[in-house]
């Protein structure tokens, strides 16, 4: 199968290597011609310094050349650039090409998911999402990973499942594409909260509380949006939430730690040095809660810390002193 990965960051590179391992003809595209030249010569990705990119993977900066002849186009770019990228690549895309997004976010202005954007720009193409607990640092080293591919058309998900499944990368299918994307986007906001708690010096009890109450918020919103309850018990729900909240590789957790220690979110993002999707998803998540009349207290407090100058300790106190209630009715998950 001919696969083109649009985006030569750590995640795009890791997925390109996963596809190449399975014998596919893989092209890896970057918008920066100098970066393409450097990567072609060194076979290195700057965010995966210990990994060597196989010689068989083409590294390109020409978008037209990268897209031509591909059967699967994989969008591995920050969520805030997905619409821009879709419009840029549109002149070269054929309707028979499968479009796969691995970006985890919600467009703030429209509240669209990444698949919503692709379906709007490419109404005749098959669209799918790949998501789950999968840090590029581990996937690129072929450490056993499980992930889920979601598409409204089951056969499309199965094509991608067959393309990527290996002894180190197990792919499940799911028809609940919206549920998979909501879990993927909101877990980044909860992971920011987990990092903030770490930065404040709190312990395992606090982390367990944030993960448990976080998945309750995510699933409540998802169910209100028509998603399947079971999705949030799966890889793109609780699975991705756990790894993003506790892993040393998590950009959102690392940014949260810095914010918990008193840094502004802008400075924390610069220090992390990579895209922190939770910052971009926070406002959209809050807006979705308001739209669907779902209470999202952790999301609300993360927004207050990031954008309203609220002290992290005050946000924690407000969460702890909320109105008394029974646990069971509040846990959709």
Topology, please?
Blueprint: E1 2-6, H1 10-21, E2 25-29, H2 33-42, E3 58-60, H3 63-67, E4 72-75, H4 82-89, E5 98-101, H5 114-121, E6 127-131, H6 136-139, E7 145-150, H7 154-164, E8 169-174, H8 177-199, H9 204-224, H10 235-246, H11 251-260, H12 265-272, H13 277-291, H14 297-307, H15 312-320
Parallel strand pairs: 1-2, 1-4, 2-3, 4-5, 5-6, 7-8
Antiparallel strand pairs: 6-7
Helix pairs in contact: 4-5, 8-9, 8-10, 8-11, 8-13, 9-10, 11-12, 13-14, 14-15
Q: Could you characterize what this model shows?
A:
By secondary structure, the chain is α/β, with parallel strands linked by helices. The protein has 2 domains: 174 residues, NAD(P)-binding Rossmann-like Domain (Rossmann fold); 152 residues, N-(1-d-carboxylethyl)-l-norvaline Dehydrogenase, domain 2, CATH 1.10.1040.10. It contains 15 helices and 8 strands. Strands 3-2-1-4-5-6-7-8 form an 8-stranded mixed β-sheet, sandwiched between helices. Strand 2, helix 2 and strand 3 form a beta-alpha-beta unit. The longest helix has 23 residues. It is globular and about 60 Å long. The chain starts with a strand and ends in a 13-residue tail after the last helix.
């Amino acid at each position: 199968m001919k696969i083109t990965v649009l985006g030569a960051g750590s995640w795009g590179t890791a997925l390109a290597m996963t596809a190449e391992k399975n014998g596919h003809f893989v092209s890896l595209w970057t918008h920066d011609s100098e970066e393409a030249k450097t990567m072609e010569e060194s076979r290195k990705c700057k965010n995966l310094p210990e990994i060597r990119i196989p010689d068989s993977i083409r590294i390109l900066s020409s978008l037209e050349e990268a897209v031509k002849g591909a059967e699967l186009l994989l969008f591995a770019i920050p969520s805030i650039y997905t619409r821009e990228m879709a419009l840029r690549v549109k002149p070269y895309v054929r309707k028979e090409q499968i479009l796969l997004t691995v970006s985890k976010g919600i467009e703030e202005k429209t509240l669209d998911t990444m698949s919503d954007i692709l379906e709007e720009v490419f109404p005749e193409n098959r669209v799918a999402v790949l998501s789950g607990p999968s840090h590029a640092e581990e996937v690129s080293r072929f450490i056993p990973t499980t992930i889920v591919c979601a598409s409204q058309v089951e056969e499309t998900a199965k094509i991608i499942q067959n393309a990527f499944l290996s002894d180190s990368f197990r792919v499940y299918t799911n028809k609940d594409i919206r549920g998979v994307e909501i879990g993927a986007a909101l877990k980044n906001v909860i992971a920011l909260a987990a990092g903030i708690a770490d930065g404040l010096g709190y312990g395992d009890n606090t982390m367990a509380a944030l993960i448990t109450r976080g998945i309750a918020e995510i699933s409540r919103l998802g169910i209100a949006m028509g998603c399947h309850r079971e999705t949030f018990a799966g890889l793109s729900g609780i699975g991705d939430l756990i790894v993003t909240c506790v892993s040393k590789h998590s950009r959102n957790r690392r940014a949260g730690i810095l914010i918990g220690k008193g840094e502004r979110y802008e400075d924390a993002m610069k220090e992390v040095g990579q895209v922190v999707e939770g910052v971009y998803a926070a406002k959209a998540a809050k807006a979705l809660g308001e739209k669907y009349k779902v209470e999202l207290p952790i999301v609300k407090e993360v927004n207050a810390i990031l954008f309203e100058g609220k002290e992290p300790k005050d946000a924690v106190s407000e969460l702890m002193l909320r109105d008394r209630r029974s646990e069971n009715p509040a846990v959709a998950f």
